[in-house]
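FAQ: What does a multi-protein file look like?

Like this. Sequence, then tokens, then the next protein.
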Amino acid sequence: MAKNEHTSAKAGKAASNVLRDGRTGKDSKTAAGSALSQRPDKKKK
């Protein structure tokens, strides 16, 4: 993956919802965690 490629905000939100949902399986949570780890860092104020 190149430095400038990141998971989109929409995909990040979906991944966050998967991790918060208690009904999802281990594989789904692994994929969601991977997607969130590819999100850009939040800017500090």
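And here is the next protein:
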Amino acid sequence: MNRKVNLLMLLFSLIGGAVGFAFGEWLLHSLLGEWPNIIVVGLYFGIIAFFIGLFCLIAEMISPRLNGSSWRQRYTGASWKLLVPATLVMLFVAGLALEFVYQLDIGGSKPVKDIALVIDHSGSMQQNDPHNKRYEAAKRMIDEMDSDKRVAVIAFDDRAELLQPFVLVKGQAEKDAIYAKMDAIDSLGGGTDIGLSLSETMKQIKDNEDTGRGTMVVLLSDGVSDLNTGQALAEYQQRNIAVNTIGLNLVNGDGAILLKEIASLTGGQYYDVTKADELSFVFNTIYSTIGDRTLITERTGPVKDSSYYMILRLVALTLIGAAIGLALGLVFDNRYLARSFAIGGAAAGLIAGALLETGLTGRPFTDGLCRLLADLVLAGVISLFTLIVPVKESYVPREERHRPGSAGRAADGLAERKQDSRSRGF
């Protein structure tokens, strides 16, 4: 048993991690939100493992420092056959399973999948938002929604007009249909009846209720309205539906008091806007806090600072790292390498999990750099860990196997090699 390292494998594993990262990022940007998260995350880890395994295999074929020259001469064919099932397939399954566990909602809370946009269309908005930028901001929010989200749009003054019942925004065609209805709204007029708008919104929520989908309301108004908050918000409180409020009032600041109270009583957030140009940013901020999470993206919403999900991410990445290390050992059919790589992978996964937990911010560029660093840590630490956990060549050269006392002729197949008592493979 020796402590040694293949520097060429270290270099190639880092290259493999970088190549896997590039393919993984393309996958995230193309499919996340279009495909189920557990499938996308499983594929992400499978791709990372495949490219790390591929480049490590090439490096050991060029310079068989860890597994021995006899492995290169006789058993590389078996390693190539094991590469895809041991890396891509195994890590896809492991990533899918761990992401499924990470997606479970603890404490009975439901992930927000339904969003009701309730927009003030009263006459006072002629002064607060004469160019109807609140509708443009709402459109941008809808444009960002994933295909599994449903949206409803209610415009109100002293009446409540249902512009769009809850509909699944599966694609651009559905979104364009919603935009057309918003563009066709009647001219401004009337007073401000927030109570009526909340009542109509709750009716739509109950008529389209789905036990597996959480609901959130975004209410934009100047806030100048008579409202019995206890009565108007009772059902929202019972159903744990947060009402996030946006105050756009350039004339009378008293409306902010009511909107703050609505948000506070329902567990929502109040956002004060002094310029209509700021509405798009506020809508985007609200959407980013609805509670989406995966093992490789920022955790948002009520569980953003959850210790449970923090620990779960660390544990999951530790297991992913160990699985990648074990996969490499399977590819080389060497139990000593499997042990060293798996222990190193667990350590690398813990570090990678800590990097993701502290480094993900929701900003695309910095999040990409964070994932790149985590992938490189996984690739590099696994390759270096043979300096800490000693390894041994799996295969004894043929001439040694024919010495007196040897168990006989070396076998070519995996099944036959098990009969050789001196074989050190799996």
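Q: Is there any per-entry metadata?
A: Some entries carry free-text notes. For the entry above: The beta strands are 112-120, 150-156, 160-168, 214-221, 242-248, 270-273.
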